[in-house]
Specification:
Chain lengths: 528, 479
């Protein structure tokens, strides 16, 4: 019940806000802040009460919802979802503070923000395919409204594009969900959409597994977004208001990567293994392409948006390394990206509020005028590059370690992304912060005010915390990752075991002795 | 047709809904003589009549029961449909009262026609005989021809009525011809006997029956406005008085689908191999033409007309799947569609004025900031029509798609979900106007109580069926 309460608290707050008179802006903002803060604190309470020694679901609640179809209101958290859950409440709080100066329709804005929060939280706790889908689609509406009403000049185009793109992917996933529902009903005799039950009992033949995998893949790949499904992202980011961008980068994209970990991998381990090179190459293309495109952007927000494509490529690569390091790295990189990119969007928002432009060439020499801002920006930029001692390094390092065990070439290609990241971020930093302060419009700029500092400083703290002492974070999902890896590890599908009929074509390429050697080597490396 | 032998075989209890409603319809007609200009009494009596009809539908036990020597059935499907019909007619009457006053439509027979039309729908949903089906369709259609043209001084309304009448009469001809061909080759008009004949004689590839089926599909296709027999729908929807448009989109369509489903699953299921592909093509065409057509529209009534064409496409999937789960899905879908459609039309009527209907999207600009609750309700209705959770439309689509996937029609469902994605585009277009454009006019909306009541019923239904659908799903279960 506690988890349900935390999840629905924001939307209850949103409904409550509806009764406030429109003119009473102060009370509206304070109430929204109170709800978001309460939600964040309560979710911290979840984290402290979380038992990280087990992969089992915790804070579970399982009651019947649509009895005729065997659909339950089944929710719970494990190590994989817990951190994302806490990050969602955290970023919601930051976003409410960051939106303090929204001028237009503040009540509706805060309502949409809080409703969005419930939608996102619901996605992470759902343990039933049906309610997962309900939350997954539901959160589209408030985000659509946020981009469409409070966004930039091309906001309507961006909002509709965002909505339709996501809808196409997720509707195909719906078909797969229904198929799985009937398949499980047929094979086990139980009509259920329970994710845990399905994980244990799904046994589709490989060719069908691949179709289902692709249906889920499309939904999540659009959300992540992976190359070549990323085209909605720059539009949505550029047009969204600052807080919208933060949430979009910080949480919405993570729903895609979360989907891979919760559905694609455990439901279809064999298909995931077979599609590994495909996903890896798409991720690598995404990493390099995102970085190269970032480099030539003139708009700061677009630059950060394309850098997201690049960073999320790392996350995907880590997930599809299908080993412990990779998935751990992906999870920590998920959090890192939320923090760093969220902070970057906040900081870009700060100068956009002052200058109403985001074009790099309009700036230059800002460090003289806004020293505190420049320092914050520097830290965030370096964390985004992955400088050791900051959070980005931990994630990228683990991901590269994981993928190196699978394929050295992939690791080498992906590493180029790290170098390119340094190029586009530092170059941008140089053009905005250093050089001569010769644009008269920039002479009058004020440094960060207290409210803006309040939004940025917690993120800076996290950047160093994860960078220097990531253990509390890593420990949270350790057991869950181990459990997941034991299920999806490629060793299960190498044709030495009982899977000869499924993976016969591999057997012809590798003799058994070669395989034994290989697995020995693998074990050695993972022990090291 | 079997000869009707003895009058005592007519079961009055089973026929109660038809009888009750007919009596009330006549009563309203007669009372109109004394009612004068104030039609409140007529409206009230009509509502009571509909309520009594809904109650009397539950009078017969045990189910299924037959009347008229097996040509009229009382079963789960028909009772549920009667509830949908009475609900939609009641909502239509509530919507009409203030609308008619505003538009100066003073005729009392308006209510009688809606009641009679409902009688036709009940017959249509309860008949297990081709002749009865024809009778039902004729009653429904003739009432609708008149209702469509009820704004006599408005040329658009006249055009709607005439167009509907000419094309409708033509389609009825096809339907009748199809029935005669089937009767000629099987020797019966009773659905069960036709099925028996086909099974016993192995007449699955009898060309005359096949021809009859094609003609039936044309006739039914016209009534449910499926592509390529949809040409009347946009103009008729646009021209008819708005409450009548809402009525047409729900009641008669549901009735036609009830008969459609019954004929194809009871009489000719053994020939499904031949009609499946035909219906698949029609369903796919309906979805695409409906959705792509709706994208082009700037008038909300025309947009909803095209969207109702696409909904006919989704509903056809239920007929194609033809399992009992599909039948249940059909019931749920129609109920969800009724709530959503009436709610949406309620808001359209609220936004209209005496001299101007305000049907263009432009007229909705900035509604969210003048009347946030209305705009939010409209958003809920539109998203529900598009099939977004957690609203009724989603559960309904889920139901029908499930039935189809269980029967193995995965490709069809994939096409349907892609169409849902297309449909979001035009539903969201209205949301764009309401939320993302600045108001360009003063909204002087008089929140008339009865219309508002319909909107509230629509919201409650749409949200209830979306969030707690279990009780209704349990009721729709046909097994």
């Amino acid at each position: 019940m506690f988890l349900t309460f935390i999840t629905f608290l924001p939307i209850i707050g949103a409904l409550f806000l509806a009764f406030f008179p429109k003119e009473n802006e102060g009370a509206i903002k304070q109430t929204a802040l109170a709800v978001a803060a309460a939600d964040f604190l309560l979710s911290l309470f979840l984290w402290t009460n979380f038992d990280s020694s087990t992969h089992k679901m915790q804070f579970e609640l399982n009651t019947s919802w649509i009895e005729s179809w065997g659909i339950n209101y089944h929710i719970g958290l494990d190590g994989i979802s817990l951190l994302l859950y806490v990050m969602t409440t955290f970023l919601t709080l930051i976003c409410v503070i960051a939106s303090w100066d929204v001028k237009k329709h503040i009540r509706e804005y805060m309502m949409a923000m809080l409703a969005l929060s419930t939608g996102m939280l619901g996605v992470f706790i759902s343990l039933d395919l049906f309610i997962f889908y309900v939350f997954w689609e539901f959160q589209l509406v408030p985000m659509y409204i946020i981009v469409g009403v409070w966004g930039g000049p091309r906001r309507i185009y961006a909002a509709v594009k965002f909505f339709i793109y996501t809808a196409v992917g997720s509707l195909l996933m719906l078909v797969a969900i229904i198929w799985i529902y009937f398949h499980v009903k047929e094979t086990t005799g139980v009509a259920t959409a329970d994710i845990l039950f399905i994980t244990d009992n799904i046994s589709a033949p490989l060719d069908i597994q691949k179709w289902l995998w692709m249906a889920f893949f499309l939904a999540f790949a659009i959300k992540v977004p992976m190359f070549p499904f990323h085209t909605w992202l720059p539009d949505a980011h550029v047009e969204a208001p600052t807080a919208g961008s933060v949430i979009l980068a910080g949480v919405l994209l993570k729903m895609g990567t979360y989907g891979f970990l919760r559905f694609n991998l455990p439901f279809f381990p064999q298909a995931s293994y077979d599609f590994m090179p495909f996903v890896a190459w798409l991720s690598i293309i995404g990493i390099v392409y995102g970085a190269l495109v970032s480099m030539v952007q003139e708009d700061l927000k677009k630059l950060v948006a394309y850098s997201s494509v690049s960073h999320l490529g790392f996350v995907m690569l880590g997930i599809f390394a299908l080993n412990e390091y990779g998935i751990q790295g992906a999870l920590i990189q998920n959090i890192n990206h939320g923090i760093s990119t969220g902070a970057l969007f906040l900081l870009v928002g700060v100068i956009y509020d002052r200058r109403h432009t985001r074009l790099i060439k309009e700036f230059g020499g800002l460090s003289k005028q806004m020293p505190v801002y420049a320092v914050c920006f520097m830290i965030v930029a370096l964390s985004s590059i992955g400088l050791p001692g900051m959070n980005g390094f931990v994630g990228e390092f683990l991901v590269l370690l994981g993928i190196f065990q699978v394929n050295g070439l992939w690791a080498a290609c992906a590493t180029s992304g790290v170098i390119l990241a340094a190029c586009y971020i530092l170059w941008m930093f140089q053009r905005v912060m250093f050089l001569e302060l010769n644009n008269p419009k920039n002479m009058e700029l004020k440094d960060l005010n207290v409210r803006e500092l309040i939004t940025v400083i917690p993120l800076l703290v996290l950047i160093f915390w994860i960078g220097l002492y990531p253990k509390p974070f890593m420990k949270t999902f350790d057991a869950s990752v181990n459990h997941l890896v034991s299920r999806v590890s490629p060793d299960n599908f190498r044709p030495t075991k009982d899977h000869q009929e499924d993976g016969g074509h591999h057997a012809s390429l590798m003799t058994k002795t070669e395989l034994a050697k290989l697995s020995q080597r693998l074990q050695k490396t993972s022990h090291n | 047709m079997e000869p009707i032998n003895a009058p005592e075989s007519i079961d009055l209890i089973a026929l109660a809904p038809v009888l009750v409603l007919s009596v009330f319809a006549m009563g309203v007609l007669v009372l109109d003589l004394w009612a004068g200009k104030n039609k409140t009494l007529l409206m009230f009596i009509s509502l009571v009549g509909l309520l009594m009809t809904a109650i009397s539908a539950f009078a017969k036990h045990p189910l299924p029961a037959f009347a008229f020597t097996g040509s009229y059935i009382v079963d789960h499907l028909s009772i549920f449909f009667i509830c949908i019909f009475t609900l939609s007619s009641a909502l239509t009457i509530l919507l009409s009262f203030e609308y008619n006053e505003r538009k100066g439509i003073k005729a009392g027979e308006y209510y009688a026609l809606i009641l009679l039309c409902t009688v036709g729908m009940i017959i249509l949903a309860s008949s297990t005989d081709l002749i009865m089906i024809f009778l039902g369709i004729e009653i429904v259609s003739i009432c609708l021809y008149v209702l469509a043209g009820f704004r006599r001084d408005d040329p658009v309304s006249n055009e709607a009525a005439l167009k509907y009448f000419l094309l409708g009469a033509f389609a009825t001809g096809f339907l009748l011809y199809g029935m005669t061909l089937i009767y000629g080759s099987t020797g019966s008009t009773n659905l069960f006997k036709i099925a028996e004949f086909i099974k016993a004689e192995g007449a699955q590839s009898n060309p005359l029956i096949l021809m009859g089926i094609v003609l039936l599909v044309i006739g039914f296709g016209f009534k449910v406005a499926a592509v390529p027999f949809h040409m009347w729908a946009p103009d008729v929807y646009h021209g008819s008085p708005t409450p009548v448009t809402a009525f047409m989109a729900v009641g008669p369509k549901a009735a036609a689908f009830a008969a459609f489903f019954r004929v194809f699953t009871e009489a000719i299921p053994d020939m499904s191999l031949s009609w499946e592909i035909l219906l698949c093509i029609i369903a796919v065409l309906s979805m695409f033409v409906g959705n792509l057509g709706a994208i082009m529209q700037t008038n909300i009534k025309r947009m909803l007309a095209f969207s109702s064409i696409s909904h006919a496409g989704y509903l056809l999937i239920a007929v194609i799947a033809k399992s009992s789960l599909a039948g249940s899905g059909l019931l749920f879908y129609m109920l969800a569609y009724a709530f959503t459609t009436f709610g949406a039309f309620g808001i359209i009527i609220l936004l209209g004025k005496k001299e101007k209907d305000n049907l263009e999207f432009e007229n909705y600009s900035g509604l969210a900031y003048k009347h946030p609750i209305l705009a939010l309700s409209m958003t809920v209705f539109l998203l529900s029509l598009g099939g977004l959770p957690p609203f009724a439309g989603f559960v309904a689509k889920f139901y029908i798609f499930s039935a189809a996937i269980e029967e193995g029609f995965v490709t069809l469902v994939v096409i349907a979900v892609l169409n849902s994605a297309i449909s979001f585009y035009y539903y969201l277009k209205v949301v764009v106007f309401m939320y993302m454009k600045e108001p360009n006019r003063e909204f002087q909306i008089s929140l008339t109580p009865m219309t508002l009541f319909v909107v509230i019923v629509g919201i409650i239904g749409t949200v209830e069926l979306g969030i707690f659908p279990d009780p209704i799903i349990a009721l729709t279960n046909l097994q």
